[in-house]
Amino acid sequence: MKLLRRTAAAFLIAVFIAVLFAGVLVPVPYAKQFRDSPNAMPSRIHLLGTDELGRDLFSRLLYGSRISLLLAPAASLLATIIAALVGGVAGYAGGWLERIALGGTDLAMSLPWLFLLLAARAVLPLNLSPAASLLITFALLGFFGWAASARVICAGARGLRDSDFVLQAKACGCSSRRVLLQQVLPNLRPALFAQFLISIPVFILTEANLGILGLGVSEPLPSWGGLLRGLENWSAVQANPARLAPLLLLLVVVSCFQLVLRQEDFAP
Amino acid sequence: MWTWTGVLFRRIGTLLLTALLGGILGATLVRFAPGFGVDERELDTRLHEDSIQALRRSHSEERNVLQFYASYLAGAARGHLGVSHSFGRPVTQLFAERLPVTLRTVALGLAGGWMLGLLLALPVVRLRGWSFDFFASSTSGVFLCLPTAVVAILFLYFRGPVALAICVVVFPRVFRYARNILVQTYALPHVLTASAKGLSTLRILLWHIFPVAAPQILALSGVTVSIALGAAIPIEVICDSPGIGQLAWQAALSRDLPVLVNMTLFVTLVTLTANSAADLATKAFETRPV
């Protein structure tokens, strides 16, 4: 099992390096159209072939992976910060503040996540620039993905609130702010880190869902969701099975995340 | 008895309050959407200025979210859920047509997902061999890593039933959770003692495993309802199944406030009811006399 986890971690690192140096690995820009060779089969020039607009699929896969793999952690960071603020303060303060915060998380968790994202994404203009759509998609993921983490953080902060060292700090006259920042938050760091890591594959999959439904990152920017939309054209997939590469890469990357981030490792 | 009644009333109160807040949240989101309140009929040059003003007045009530929501609730109390802007039909009628489709597929999908998940989890802990565990865990792992929309695309190509697509989304979660809990339960001292005393597998399962594991496994049932309802949206959209998932999608794209508010309330109520029922069932199981 250890070997499998190490292999998964090594694969993830290799993918991260490959997407960071996508420009070096693939000299062809992701939006460049080879108009004389649309739907081309894999060749030395186009490793995975081209799409119906004649764009190099390998280039789009690498750049799309870069967007999904770099922005999912950013969204996860945003969600974790919100969860730390809501859960940490509510759990530490207790009383009505905790009840309100937990009510808010209940409300956020009672609605299916995809429904919330659909509603929020659909109320934004559909003719957004690609860069704006990119930022909005991942910002929405971050803004709606904090609830489950906040509950975990709240439970952790509640446990710390009654701990001996916090009581001692209070007895010594430390202000609530100081106790929260210097005693509680540092002790919540492992839980925060775990929630950050656990959210990454969730956000990758959610972006893929939104992208397939046409509400993710806009063209011509590639992302895994956008690339997976190509699967809707089954005849093109049958003609060129290399078009399944985004699905396989997504599957392997998310599996590697699941392997590396075993829940029991984060258990207290 | 009194405690249970109190718990039940408190739950119902919380549930209704949360659902109402969910409705306001949905209404507010749509109200501030760009293009809200714009009626394409206003572009019809054949319409008289008075008609256009009448159209604008018909939308003016919806501009104030709280006013809209209050009048909506008053209407809902009388059984009127409003009229859909994009479909031009009463929301009650739309729900009556589409709700049975979704409820049937979600119920079948949930039943299938739970059965498959538990049927895979039980042999894993009984056989204790790594090969079946590896097979079951990797199969469920693959489905866990697939976006729901990809599952929907695959089912569209292979013409699989929509309920089975929901089953495929639900079962890996049930399997993983149930497997872990069953493995822990099988390792408990009283189960090992029962095994050592030569009790039959069925007896150990029914008398020693099930009572311990059931409350924890039941707790997942509420969450799976939410997962199945969430999965119904992309699956119904891609597989063109005329359920409320597809309606939610169409309403979100056309900023249909009456449909979206009803949808938000409905989804919130269903998921909260499922979660509360699961919580109460778990509590009842835990506090039952031994």
What are the salient characteristics of this protein?
heterodimer, A: 268 residues, mainly alpha, 12 helices, B: 290 residues, MetI-like fold, 80% helix, elongated
Structural write-up:
The complex is a heterodimer of chains A (268) and B (290). Chain A has twelve helices and no strands. Chain A has helices spanning 2-20, 22-25, 57-93, 95-110, 113-122, 130-144, 147-161, 164-171, 176-212, 224-228, 234-239, 245-260. Chain B is mainly α and 290 residues long. In chain B, helix 4 (91-127) runs antiparallel to helix 9, helix 9 (201-238) packs parallel to helix 10 and helix 9 (201-238) packs antiparallel against helix 11 (257-286). Chain B has one domain (4-286): MetI-like fold. Helix content of chain B is 80%, strand content 0%. Chain B has helices at 2-31, 49-63, 65-77, 91-127, 130-144, 148-157, 162-186, 189-196, 201-238, 244-253, 257-286. Classes of the chains: A mainly alpha (268), B mainly alpha (290). Chain A binds chain B through residues 103, 106-107, 109-115, 118-120, 122-125, 201, 205-206, 208-209, 212-213, 225, 228, 231-232, 234, 247, 250-251, 254-255, 258, and chain B through 14, 18, 21-22, 25-26, 29-30, 32-36, 141-142, 144-150, 153, 157, 226-227, 229-231, 233-234, 237-238, 248-249, 252-253, 255, 260, 263-264, 267-268, 271-272, 275.
